Amino acid sequence: MRFALLALALGGFGIGLTEFVALGLLPNLAAFAARLQRKQVLMACFAMFTLGTLASALLPTFEPLLAACFLTVLPHGPLLLPSCSR
Prior knowledge:
This protein is mostly helical. The chain is built from four helices and no strands. It has one domain.
């Protein structure tokens, strides 16, 4: 029973940590993206997301995979800014 509780606690901590670390960078990226044209921001974000996803699928070890996952998360803030505004 203790092992299951520890596994759940560590899993929740890991998921929360990965989400909140990336969310801390999003306002800075969104502020930078606000200065550019919407089409340029959207294309750059889609390119970053695609490259990060392809790298995540192809990388053999954990450390580069973690960096590729981080690269995949970065475009979320700037991507929402131009796509939600008029």
